[in-house]
Design a protein that fits this description.
alpha+beta, 5-stranded antiparallel β-sheet, 27% helix
């Protein structure tokens, strides 16, 4: 049985949590740092699925309205196989702006990219191939310089 289930979006050995996500900090050179953030979103969990189905049936909302990340993903995953959506954000920033200020970070970040995955292991394979990072490189919020407030 997989250690990723409807209660836990990450493998047991992985440094991250479903509330705050997980973060990787990479020094690009003496002046720049890259951050890779993975945030998770519960996908069609049993505790809300019946109500969501009612919204769709009544025409109040669509599945894409409730799960906008699926637009970027390009399809609606099978709810019997997918419990979480993994939203990946990649941002580069000059080291002089590495302060605990979310607004400053948002305005000074460069080369910002975002990706969506419905499978943790595919997400990690993508990050390893394109950014040369692995599971061991990620930490919980507060264990690196990513702004918390």
């Amino acid at each position: 049985m997989s250690d990723i289930n409807q209660y836990n979006p990450f493998p047991w050995r992985f440094r991250g949590d479903k509330k705050d996500g997980t973060y990787c900090e990479i020094k690009l050179d003496n002046e720049h740092t890259r951050f890779i953030a993975i945030r998770v979103m519960a996908y069609m969990h049993d505790d809300v699925y019946e109500r969501e189905c009612q919204f769709v049936a009544q025409g109040i909302m669509t599945w894409e309205d409730m799960y906008p990340a699926t637009k970027k993903l390009g399809y609606l995953p099978d709810r019997d196989k997918v419990f979480w959506l993994y939203k990946v954000y990649v941002d580069d920033i000059e080291n002089e702006f590495l302060v605990d200020d979310v607004e400053l970070f948002a305005t000074k970040a460069k080369n910002c990219k975002s990706f969506v995955f419905d499978d943790f292991y595919k997400c990690m394979a993508f990050l390893k191939e394109h950014y040369h990072v692995e599971e061991k490189d990620f930490k919980k919020l507060g264990e690196n310089n990513y702004p918390q407030h």
